[in-house]
Amino acid sequence: MSTTYAVRDSATMLRRNLLHIRRYPSLSIMLVAQPILFLLLFVYVFGGTMGAGLPGHEGAGDRSDYLVYIAPGILIMTVASVALGTAISTATDMTTGIIARFRTMDIARVSVLTGHVLGAVIKTGFAVVIVTSFVLLLGFRSDAGPLGWLGAIALLILTAFSLTWLTVGMGLAADSVETASNTPMFLMILPFVSSAFVPTDAMPAGLRYFAEHQPFTPIIETLRALITGAPTGSDLWLAIGWCVLASVLGYLWSRRLFLRVPAK
Amino acid sequence: MTDTNPAIEVAGLTKSYGDHSVLAGVDLTVPEGSVYALLGPNGAGKTTIVNILSTLLTPDDGEIRVAGFDVRREPAGVRAAIGVTGQFSAIDELLTGRENLRLMADLAHLDRTAATTSVTVMLERFDLVEAADRRAQTYSGGMKRRLDLAMTLIARPRLIFLDEPTAGLDPRSRRDLWAIVREQVADGVTVLLTTQYLDEADHLADRIGVLDGGLLVAEGTAAELKRRVPGGHVSVQFTDAARLTAAAAAHPGAATIGEALTLQLPNDGSVAGLRRVLDGLDDDGVVGLTVESADLDDVFLALTGRTAEAPASEEVPA
User: What is the ipTM of this complex?
Assistant: First the structure.
């Protein structure tokens, strides 16, 4: 039964989650505001100095060069920010009585979770469009062709999908909504220790090793290549690999938490 | 589900959390199309039984079949047959009443037309038409409960579990809910309900199981349970104090209520017992006579050694 109706039940649950997003927009607004604030802060406060330090510009880099440099990092932070919100909304949802009702119904149970994930991916789409508009408004221009932008969209969706499965798991594992809003914070911190805001060459050896090998760096490097029209190289496969790994682990973990008996 | 199978069959059900035993071996059978009430105070294990029968919890031990399916081995079959309305409202407060019902219709895999029709019918039946397009979080307690029950019934389950369905409702909403339950029963639906309201069990149930400390301490129809305990009496009101005194002297076990000129004689409710009382009375000396049987409060007190918890001071279980 569960396979026959898995798609239909997931679509039903997705509709439910989209209604939630529409009815409770303040959370979504907060989640989009955060990366936009970072964008403005980094471009206008640090941008002049940081731009001058960018490699490849012979010390003549400026604010607009720095905007181009951090654009992919800001977009990935947007994805992470929405994923963080999903941990909160999943944990909140689990405290409501309707979840117990779902558990007593003959439905594809994991659809409760796929509804959250698909809803979050769509929400991420909107958030990315808004943040990208800001990036363009601040003067971002690139030589990337349509293929590059399509690739960027695909990568952002994949990243959103994988981070969301992880944060759905965090939302389920959390014993309270407060915990659920704290545990995924590392997703917002990790981009700072990657190539998002400064090239990893500038970091001390140990930190640099971490920055170069953590998942956000290949994802951000691939996105940077795609939106600036540069070749992606091996980072592309690393990025896809990390995303697939996170999706599978996040899915299995979330599923196990949700199906565990006794229900909480 | 065939006619020969009871809707619910439970034998030797046990459940404990660590050292704390919640259910200590419960046996119960609910025939199809009947209403069974589990009566008991907070902590007696009522909700645990409902959670196990509705596949939310796994039992430690026992043979448990619901709608012909084993709850442990065939939970999907059980889920397809049942509807559950728990103690805490299982509605989506961010959705409107209509959207909540539509959600349930879709999850019950009704086709588009059937879903739309069912939603309209339920909104009307449950008196939610005006509120249909308002968010459920703006509903009153009674409206939320009606929506909750409508969501349970929209899939037309053959067996419904109602866990304290009227807790916290005003008397009018309670009666509305009782009427809805009776309609379901008239359609052949089997109902298992839990309650700590004794009158609710009395009004709705064909059979009542009294649950205390994880055990069924008594089972039967309301009348059978009342017969099992003392507490029934005949009240006789006299024309004057002299006759009252005389009658009281003739019945040493009776209680005199002097100012009301009334004598209360213990009575088991049988015809013979009643005749014995009547035989000792003068026709013209008596102005009124009432036969009162024990109510379920008496039953509860006699069976468990405690009064049933007053619903008004009900604690919200964690």
Answer: 0.87
